[in-house]
Amino acid sequence: MIKRDALTYLDLDECVLKLEKYDYTKDEMITFIKQGKLKGEKIDNKWYVNQCDLRYFTYCIEQPEILKQAVYSGAIGVDLSQLSLNGKILDIGGGGEGIIGQLKSDEVIAIDPLKQELIEAPSGPIKIVMNAKELLFLDHSFETVTSFFTLMYIKNEEHKQVFEEIYRVLKPNGHFILWDVVIPKTINNTLFIAFLEVTLPNKTVSTGYGQKRNDKTQTSDYFIDLGKEVGFQVESVEDINNNAYCLKFTK
User: Fold this and answer.
1) Structural domains of the chain in order of their starting residue, each with its CATH number
2) Quick check: 12 and 1 in contact, CB under 8 A?
3) HSE-CB for 66 with a 13 A CA cutoff
């Protein structure tokens, strides 16, 4: 097992153990790699597979119909172990795994339009059922707003309204930090799937996101232009594994 670009890579012996219930051999794993069914990478002349790609492989084994309609983002490794967030934090779409809530706990107010997502999220943050298109907070309420792979679930035509609301509730010189995935132009009704490995200070979280939409195309440039349009300044742009990004905006 090795770690590279915030992703954990398993050698084929480790992969065979991980997929023990399928009873695959190393030779079969190599065949899958050569056939393009499993993404592998040679490191020091030895085959490795990262855990995200291995999860997608098993997902397709168990749901083979997915292969006919899915576009896979590729593995995404996000290292938040050294992330610094200031002041009161509003986390947009903070249900589910609640990554930012796990990271900063009681400093976070997590909102999500789906009550069940907030119920399932780890304890710690204040949780409020709320839509990001209409934030029920006063102007200048937060030092930081975050969106961790949330905007992919919001219609493109609603993104500007969400950005305007985020800008409104941020204090002057506050920060909006956005993580999201590159979604290419796809055929209608294509299922887009992303698997992530997220490194927190005290643990690693493996998670996945999927979205089936006709209108979805998004890149870092798309969000940069949108941020500038509503008044943000772009402080930093970070590429993540060539298929995701982290953008930091300043009000």
Assistant:
1) 2-68 (no CATH), 79-250 (3.40.50.150)
2) no
3) 18
**Which is nearest to 149 in space by CA: 75, 246, 52, 50?**
246
Report the distance separating Cα 213 and Cα 236, nearest Å.
Answer: 29
- φ/ψ of 154, rounded to 5, equals -105, 135
Number of helices and strands (H, E) in the chain? 7, 14
List the one residue out of 7, 58, 66 whose CA is nearest residue 206. Answer: 7
Alpha-carbon radius of gyration of the chain = 19
Q: Give SS3 for 184.
A: coil
pLDDT tens, position by position, for the chain (251 residues)? 999 999 999 999 999 999 999 999 999 999 999 999 999 999 999 999 999 999 999 988 888 887 677 888 899 999 999 999 999 999 999 999 999 999 999 999 999 999 999 999 999 999 999 999 999 999 999 999 999 999 999 999 999 999 999 999 999 999 999 999 998 876 566 788 899 999 999 999 999 988 876 666 789 999 999 999 999 999 999 999 999 999 999 99
Structure tokens at 49: 């597979």
**Which DSSP helix (H) or strand (E) runs through 247?**
strand 244-250
Tell me, yes or no, if the pTM score tops 0.85: yes
